[in-house]
Amino acid sequence: MKKMIGFIALTSVTAIACAVGTQQENIESTGSSAAALDANNRLWGAERLGAVIPARWTAAGATAVSYQVNANNASLVAQESLRNGSAIASPTTSAGYQSLAPMSRDFSAASVCNGGGSPTGVCCANERSNKVGYGAVDVLVKTNQDVTNVSQVSGSSNFLKNLYFGNANGTAGTNPSGSYPTGCITSFADTGGSFPKSGTGSARVLAPDFGTEANIQLRTFTGVSTTVTGARGHRDWCENVIRVSSVSGSLILNQSTGGTDANVTSTYVGPGLACASSDSVAVCIGKIINAATGSFAYLGVADRQSGGAIQTNNRLLNVDGVARGATTTVTNIRNLTYPLAYTLYLNENVTNSVDADEKLFYNALYTDTSGTGGTGGAGGAKSAFDTALSNAGLVPCDASLFLACGTGACSGKNDGRGIGACGSSITTYCTSGRP
What we know:
The protein is α/β, with parallel strands linked by helices and 435 residues long. The chain is globular and about 65 Å long. 55% of the residues are buried. It has two domains: 6-134 and 342-391, no CATH class; 144-312, no CATH class. It is 18% helix and 18% strand. It has helices spanning 53-59, 74-82, 159-164, 213-221, 265-268, 281-291, 308-312, 331-334, 356-366, 381-391, and strands spanning 6-10, 34-35, 42-44, 66-70, 100-103, 127-128, 131-142, 149-150, 204-208, 242-247, 250-257, 260-263, 295-300, 314-316, 318-319, 341-349, 354-355.
C-alpha cells in the first residue's frame, strides 16, 4: 500500500503517562516484530515536533509519514496510541498502534496500558521517557512599552492565569451563558511598569485560541484544565480577550464581550488592516501588537520564528523575574528556570510491535555515533535533528553537542533515553538499535 505524506491538525483535548519498579533490562529479542502504521502511515504526536519529525523520517529512508496532531489533545493521543489505543483520535487507534510517541510533556497516568491495567505511577511496563529538546511560551508586548515582568506562580496574583482564564476549569456550563469566569483581572499593576504606556493606545489582550500548543501549555502552567467537555467560547476566557484562530487557512478573531462571543475579524483582517487572511495565528498576533501598540500577548517560542515583525518589534517579558532573553539566548529554557519552559520527548514502548518506518527513523537517530565518544557528529542524524529543532524555533538539549540530552538508560550514550519519569533502567536497543 502506498503511504501518504501530510501534517494534519485535528480537534479534541490534552494530557500524558509510564512504569516504575522492576524494569526489564534486556528484551531486545522480543516485541520488535514487524507491525504497520495504517495505510496512510499516520503517526500521532505533539504539534511542535511535527515541524521536525517528518523530514527526519524520510531522511532515514522511511516512507513519508502523515504526522497527525489532535488539536487539543496532541500528547494524550500520542500516549494513548502507544498504550491501549485512542478513542479520540480520528480515525481511532488500536492498542500498541505506535511504538514511538512524540510528546510535549512526559508520560502521565491518564490512559490505560497496552493490554489493559493502570500505570504504576505514571509508567506502564516497558515504557521509556526519551528527552529530545525544549520548548517555551513567550509573553510579549511592543518594544515601546515600559513593562518588564509578569508573574505566573508568584506574587500577589497569578497574573497570566487571572488575565486570561480566571477560574475557568474546562467544563462547559460552569459559567452560565452570558457570564465569564470569576477571578479575572483587568489591572496590569503586576507587570513592573505602566501598561499601556501613556500615548500608546488602549490595552488589548491577545491569545492564540484553542487548538494551539501555546494555549495548551499556558493553561497547563497556570493550572487551568485543558480538557473542555462541551462548546468552547467566552465562558472559558476572561472578558475582552481577543482570541485568534485559523480555520481552513483563514483567520478568525473572536472577542469575549457582552456575555457572548463577538466576531471581530473585520476589525483586524483585510486590506489596510493589521493582518492578511492568509497569515498564520502567530504572524497576525505579532502584526496586531506592532500596529495596536497597547497589545499584550503570549505565543509559543516556536511561533515567534514565523514572522520577522514578531521578533524585531516585540519585547519578551521576564516571568517571575526570570529572563527569557533574546531569541538566541536559551540558557533559562535549557535549565528550566524560565517558568514557561517545558521538555520535549520522543517516548517509546520497547516491546510494542514496531512499524518498519518507525524502525528506520529510530535507528538512524539513535545509532548515529559519527561524533567523538559515540555522540552524533556534524552532518549526522543527531546533528540534523537538532538543526531541525532550531529551525522550528525549538531548543536543542545542548549548545554544541548533538542530541546530548543526558545519560539515562543507555550508558555512555548521552542521548536522553531514559531521562524522564520512565524507563531509566531499560537498556533495550541501547547497543544496536531496533532489530
